Amino acid sequence: MYTTDETGLLNNYAIEPNTYYAEYPSPEQQRSYAVQGAIATLFVTLLMLVSFAAN
User: pLDDT digit string (tens) for 1-22?
Assistant: First the structure.
């Protein structure tokens, strides 16, 4: 959507969305993040071990 000001110039700036504060994660979410991090670390470690073994 384009708007023009009183001099006829085009104003096509983006409309900024409303901001809000994030909520601190609950203990269940924190535990889930820790498990995901542990699984990702294990996965990367296994990939590196396989690549070293194949080399």
Answer: 566 677 777 777 777 889 999 9
